Amino acid sequence: MFLEDLFLLGVRVVKDQEVKILSNIQVSERYWHMVVDASGLASDVEPGQFFYIDCGQENESFLRRPFSVYRINQDDQTLEFLYLTKGLGTQALTKLKQGETVRSFGPLGQGFSLQEDAQKILLLARGVGIATLAALAQEASKKGVQCAAILSARSHNDLLAAEMLQGFGAEVHKVTEEDGTSDVENVRDIIEDITARHNIDAAYTCGSRRLSRLLQDITSKKDIPAEIALEEHMGCAMGVCYACVCDVVEDDEIRTVRVCLEGPVFPLQKVMMQP
Amino acid sequence: MSTLEQKSANQGCHLRVNIGGLELKNPIMPASGAFGESMEKVLDFNHLGAVLPKSITKYPRKGNDTPRVCEVPAGMINSIGIQSKGLQYYLKNIVPYYQQYDTPLIASISADSVEEFVEMADILGNNPGVDALELNISCPNLKGDGLAFGMDADVTYELTKKVRGITDVPLFNKLTPNVTRIQDIALASEEGGADALTVVNTFLAMSINVHTWKPELGNVMGGISGPGVKPIIVRMIYQVYQASKLPIIGCGGVMNGEDAIEMMLAGASAVQVGTASFIKPAAMLDVLEEIKSYMQQYGINDIYDIIGKVHFNQYEEG
């Protein structure tokens, strides 16, 4: 089955609704953390899926912004987002306060697949991509799957999810520019070391083309199934405008598929990485 | 009778419009490129006046390089480049898919030559699942410098006349705003045999990131849409309404019911909603409800009492 046929399977209602903000606070120099009430959502949320959020910026910036979920808390029916303040949209989002509502469309897209019989998985995340993989680490922990995670960022300040991942019992390796440890070759050594010590059933990545190419290389040689969550500028987030596309190879043919609908999670080996 | 018709009948609102021979239960339809099957998750297509899937090309097209969209104050610029799976896929999958809905299907055609327009119009216009054709003679994202067939009155006339000769299905020409006098293209379309005019496609635009010194779009230029361009569209609808007898489908920057009413006052018989669906996925249904509320508020029973009814004595009456 081709990626483009996927959406035909999971037809369901996706709601665009106001959700209540339970908290929205700055957690480091560049990162914010928002918790929303998810009790009114029409369907379950999977790690890797995203919400298309109206950041409330009026006309100054116009489009919504996609945010992948950081934590899915079924017990208290809340969702958490960890976001990097980058431009007009995310800056406007920081202005929203506890008790206010935010218009949110989702959950959208295809999430990560985590095989039931998986024993140990590898996560390779860079920057805000850590937030996307954190949701998967949470899911893995719930299913008793062990995680080894390599988290890459500019500075220690940006390695926010590390503690949470360690809380889930993950083996966490941190690399940063600050420490001069984030170069690709060093990350390659760490992955080689992990795969030498453990039998890795699947690998996942988000946040860096450079690291994704590295993981593509290693997992194809070692025949480890791998997935990537992609980011792209979006228009509609529901598969009609064809703004957020990427090239994948299927049946030896290059296809241009939609990140919002066929993704944002794709089999890593299929994605053509631009240099 | 659908729920919607029942509701509007109960309320005494007559929303039915005739666009060049195509009967619509209400005047709201999507703009090409801002609508597709996957929107079935967020709205019931039976409630729309018409469905209008993305422009189809004869052969599959890859589309343009990313980034394909960038936002600007009160709008966005896109340069998708009509990513398309080709006519065969469209005939096999898209046309049959929309048969499940009690809503007419307008097929938007894009082509590289007059001959290709004629060939595609022949196939699609004579397909029983297609209720009307919209000729996209105005996409700014296919050729260098945004050139389009609809920039030249003579080419527009020739193209329309040839397509008219091959099919009897209602024919809507989608005009480009990137011309000096849009009335000339409207009249060329009318003389060529078009049944209605979609006013208009996007404005050729460009945005540069001042931090990277690079164009914001992979294709450098694109088409701007959104509420920022709406006053220009209203002006163009008004100008075309004065010049041509053809019904007009207004398109560009409609975000709510009042925007649609404004276009209808200027002369539009129907209105397309595009960019608004990106901000609010179910925007088309909201626009429709707001039109109904407006009509109730002002005691207007028939939508035709609005179309082209802008008047100019507001200062005299104070």
From TrEMBL, chain A:
Q: Which cofactor does it need?
A: FAD; [2Fe-2S] cluster
Domain FAD-binding FR-type: residue ranges: 14-114
Report residues binding FAD: R65, P66, F67, S68, G89, T90
**Which UniProt keywords are listed?**
2Fe-2S, Electron transport, FAD, Flavoprotein, Iron, Iron-sulfur, Metal-binding, Transport
Keyword Metal-binding recorded: yes
Q: GO molecular function terms here?
A: 2 iron, 2 sulfur cluster binding; flavin adenine dinucleotide binding; metal ion binding; oxidoreductase activity
Q: Which InterPro entries match?
A: Cyt_c3_hydrogenase_gsu (IPR012165), Dihydroorotate_DH_ele_sf (IPR037117), Dihydroorotate_DH_Fe-S-bd (IPR019480), FAD-bd_FR_type (IPR017927), FNR_nucleotide-bd (IPR039261), PyrK_electron_transfer (IPR050353), Riboflavin_synthase-like_b-brl (IPR017938)
Gene3D superfamilies in the record, alphabetically?
A: Dihydroorotate dehydrogenase, electron transfer subunit, Nucleotide-binding domain of ferredoxin-NADP reductase (FNR) module, Translation factors
Similarity annotation: Belongs to the PyrK family.
> Can the keyword Disulfide bond be found in this entry's annotation?
no
Q: Where does [2Fe-2S] cluster bind?
A: C236, C241, C244, C260
Please name the PROSITE patterns in this protein's record.
FAD_FR (PS51384)
Entry's Gene Ontology BP terms: pyrimidine nucleotide biosynthetic process
Cofactor binding remark = Binds 1 FAD per subunit.
List the protein's name: Dihydroorotate dehydrogenase electron transfer subunit
TrEMBL record, chain B:
Q: Name one GO cellular component term.
A: cytoplasm
Catalysed reaction, written as an equation: (S)-dihydroorotate + NAD(+) = orotate + NADH + H(+); (S)-dihydroorotate + A = orotate + AH2; (S)-dihydroorotate + fumarate = orotate + succinate
One protein family per Pfam: DHO_dh
Describe the location of the Dihydroorotate dehydrogenase catalytic domain by residue ranges: 15-295
| Range of residues in the leader sequence | none
- Where along this sequence does the record place binding of substrate? K54, N78, S79, I80, G81, I82, N136, N201, T202
Where, by residue number, does FMN bind? S32, K54, S55, N136, K174, V200, G226, G252, G253, G274, T275
Q: What is this protein called?
A: Dihydroorotate dehydrogenase
Q: Which gene encodes it?
A: pyrD
